[in-house]
Amino acid sequence: MKHIFIVNPYTCKDKTNGYIETIENLCHDLGESYDVYQTEYIGHAEDITKRFTKEDDVCIYSVGGDGTAYEVANGLQKDVPMAIIPAGTSNDFFRMLGLSADNIPHILKETIIGKEILIDYGKCNDKIFLNTTTMGLDARVNHMVCEMLKKTFLPKFMLYGVAAVTNIFNPQPFNATITTNNSSFNVKSILIAVMNGRYYGNGFSPTRYADIQDGEFDICIVHNTSTPRMLHLLPKYFKGKTENIKEVTHLKASKITIKANHPVHIQSDGENYMQHELCIEIVNKGLHLRIPHSATIE
What we know:
There is one protein chain. The protein is an alpha+beta fold. It contains eight helices and 13 strands.
């Protein structure tokens, strides 16, 4: 097998050269064949990934954050495996492996000599996602942060705080018809989160029991409510402690359609857009994921 490393220098920043040197030294010491690519524009990781097919006998490594992994996942040809090296800010999907993201050289070595498992992924309209697709308030927060990052050098976590407070005081609820495998109903919501993984937004975990191998989404619907009540619910939403709260509905489904009454902010693994209708379905164990040798997930 050949190991294809796609390194995002925008995410890795001043550690980029160090990561590449570590990759080269490890592959040399282990006698492994490899290539390293650095991304140069948005969508480049997807373009690079598309070049490789199953017949090439490769594994595509996403060296960056969740956005880089999102691009690689959307470029994967059928049955080509991918791996995630958590070199980004939040690394939410890597959290699903139950491993620390602190020691990148160790993770690189453990993944190169690692093992492959099959995991679920989501399809939202024509795009693949690993973690989540959300609709409403938090997607609007993410959009605002991305816009502010173009104009300021303030830390990202500070921008999230500013954007979150701004939007909580202007939640912009929307009406939607939700259809799952076996039910259909109407809601007035400020936020709908369709979760494959358990985390997003640097640790938010609204559905703490989500499983990337169970063939179902865990879905969290936050109904329209007052600003003081939203401020009360936010810490519970962060920690996934929203069971038995009247403003929150939890569902499990392998397919969900959401039709809003107007275009609403959407984010899929941190990628922003606007849409009024989403058709989201899970692909059960459809992705080959190479993981560190020491990971306990099978």
